[in-house]
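Sequence in, structure out.
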Amino acid sequence: MFGKKKAGAHQWRGVIDEYRDRLPVSSKTPVVTLREGGTPLVEATNLSKILGNDIWLKFEGANPTGSFKDRGMTMAISKAAEDGAKAVICASTGNTSASAAAYAAHANMVPAVLIPQGKIAMGKLAQAVVHGSKILQVDGNFDDCLDLAKELSEKYPVALVNSVNPFRIEGQKTASFEVIDFLNDAPDYHVLPVGNAGNITAYWKGYLEYREDRKSSRLPKMWGFQAEGAAPIVRGEVVKKPETIATAIRIGNPASWQGATNARDMSGGLIDSVTDEEILNAYR
């Protein structure tokens, strides 16, 4: 595409530069960005009519690698670069590997990805391959991969960029800011899937911060949903062998478990489970 920027038009710069005053960065932080964020909030007109309420969908698929993980990854990789890291590592069932690989490559770092053998969405893994990731299959599930990634990051000079990294949560909270900036207030309810629980934790953090700064007049009730076969928070115990068709939330021991329950309890919300059949019906 060829053309000139319209005079006075705002060009989205990525979540760090857009929300710099609300993020733990300084002038010494090298910003590694692919212009993530600024995703549309789309009115779900048919669903709104069915439910009799105004329903909006935050389309995070418009991020550079196709998921909300990019918001957190720009922060995680930027802070890793600030610390002088030359390599990063993550455990993934798909989206995190794509995001980590793209941002690491942009920062001239080596990305390493640990994946559960035979339990990853290949379309998502393709992005990690394209960006030159070192990919290792682990004989186990996502939780086993994350345990190994933690161990390797403690023994070797490699930055862990899963959502246990607090900078991931900081970046991902910017989606809350965008929702409020668009609606001019927080929604009544915020509904989202829960896997490793970083997203519900981050959204709640963002809503709290905007409320404290009087950017919004209220807080939403947070409603999170796990797959029935991978619902440790609902059951109140670790699921050693989680199973569901939804690979992105096939997690039995969420890293941000406490953050998710805090969001639920503080907001007066809920975390429940849905069956694979219900998930498939929703797709249709």
